[in-house]
Amino acid sequence: MDAVLLARIQFASTTLFHFIFVPLSIGLALLIAIMQTMYVIKRDEVYLKMTKFWSVFFLINFAVGVVTGIIQEFQFGMNWSTYSRFVGDIFGAPLAVEALLAFFMESTFIGLWVFGWNRLPEKIHLACIWLVSIGTIASAFWILAANSFMHNPVGFIIQNGRAEMNDIIALLTNEKLWVAFPHTVFGSFATGAFFIIGVSAWNMLKKRDVDFFKKSMNISLVLGLISGLGLAFSGHSQATYLMHAQPMKMAAAEGLWEDSGDPAAWTLIANIDVENKESTSRVEIPYLLSYLAFSEFKGKVEGMNTLQARYEEQFGEGNYMPPVKTTFWSFRIMAGTGGVLLLLSLTGLYLSYRKKLVFSTKYLKWLVPAIFLPFIGNSFGWIMSEIGRQPWVVNGLMKTEDAVSPNVSAGQILFSLISFSTIYTLLAIAMVYLFIRVIKQGPHEKRKDDVSASDPFETGGMEHAVK
């Protein structure tokens, strides 16, 4: 197999697997901070139990996420050395800040929070988990600052054949960063919320600790609704950004080969014929594409054929169209999952308001598999964003085929791909096993003579929680 293809497969697999843990950590950290805050304010012991129970999942997820992140960095340095030499001066800076500031902040305050139960003053201890939550969000910001340069290169000069940073402010005010960051954070909040919602629904169906899980679900449903609305509005801002910054990605996401009419209709589904460069059997919603692109119900969207001719004039001969089918359907899967999450949140809050949530068996059954919807939406959103940028690894500056390591063979990449995939499989099995054990155990009271009874974070407590 081709080394470029294998390197891309390895990058995609490691990043997608790592991206399972990142949004869950961000979402759970916020919800745990909210739960502990409610305990401090209301003095209701159930909120303390909620804080400690859900934090076990957060800590397991955080630990596995750290391991997957290390593996991702290793394969990045191994397979993409040409890219690293070209943009290392820019790309490395925000990643270094993320590691030295944001991740250090997370790990430090996680330690203080875990071992500070009944040792730190109550409000100082509460501040620790809020700082953990802020740290997870800050990590996302700095990583997206690096990624956004790949989509919209700013704040640099080309010198000695390398892109070198000359304006850190431009990098941190990158338009791509400020449309991607809210969307990613709201997606992460939805991930944490629906994890708790799904686990709570399963236990409510089993009639286990109903009051505990009902309160957990109600808090998460509120965050789920806020996240769903945030995803909708931030998604719209991304669409308007694409129109002037990455119009080819926008056209591919719509399967639009020729220029649209004015106003432009948004395509719900279509048969994408890449060979003949046409999209047939389109089901369209009038005016909607113009609104998504221009925030008004008028305006024409350029098609891929028009943009291809323009890019050939600017960059020379070549294929500047991304994989159209992948981009088209990834966008619809992402948007569809977001819509379903918003609908489920609204339904749950309505049922809770009518005091029918516990008795709505069919709805609770839907919520259990809904745990996976945010992960699906996050993954396909990332696929749409990165695949839609092709053939560029840095938009307009470097093509993906030119970014791989010249001295790493296809066989070496294949070996590392198999090795990393094996490690990821073992990690996934271990994490799922631990999660299931904790879910089945539930937030049950321990014996009074059990060291971990009053505090699962005391010596031996975490071990007890997962055994």
Quick overview:
With 467 residues, the protein is mainly alpha-helical.
Question: How does this model look, in words?
Answer:
By secondary structure, this protein is mostly helical. The protein has 2 domains: about 5-245 and about 325-465, no CATH class; about 245-320, no CATH class. The chain is about 70% helix and about 5% strand. The protein has helices at about 5-40, 45-80, 80-115, 120-150, 170, 175-205, 210-245, 245-255, 290-295, 305-315, 325-355, 360-365, 375-385, 410-440, 460-465; strands at about 155-160, 160-165, 265-275, 280-285, 390-395, 400. Strands 1-2 form a two-stranded antiparallel sheet. Strands 3-4 form a two-stranded antiparallel ribbon. It is globular.
Any descriptors?
15 helices; globular; mainly alpha; 467 residues; 6 strands; two-stranded antiparallel sheet; 6% strand; disordered C terminus; 2 domains
Radius of gyration: 24 Å
Give the CA-based shape.
globular
Count of helical stretches: 15
State the total count of DSSP E strands: 6
> Beta-sheet strand percentage?
5-15%
Number of domains: 2
Overall average pLDDT: 88
The separation of the N and C termini measures 44 Å
| SSE ordering | HHHHEEHHHHEEHHHHHEEHH
Largest sheet: 2 strands, antiparallel
Strand order of the main beta sheet, please? 1-2
Instruction: Give the % helix.
Output: over 70%
Structural class: mainly alpha
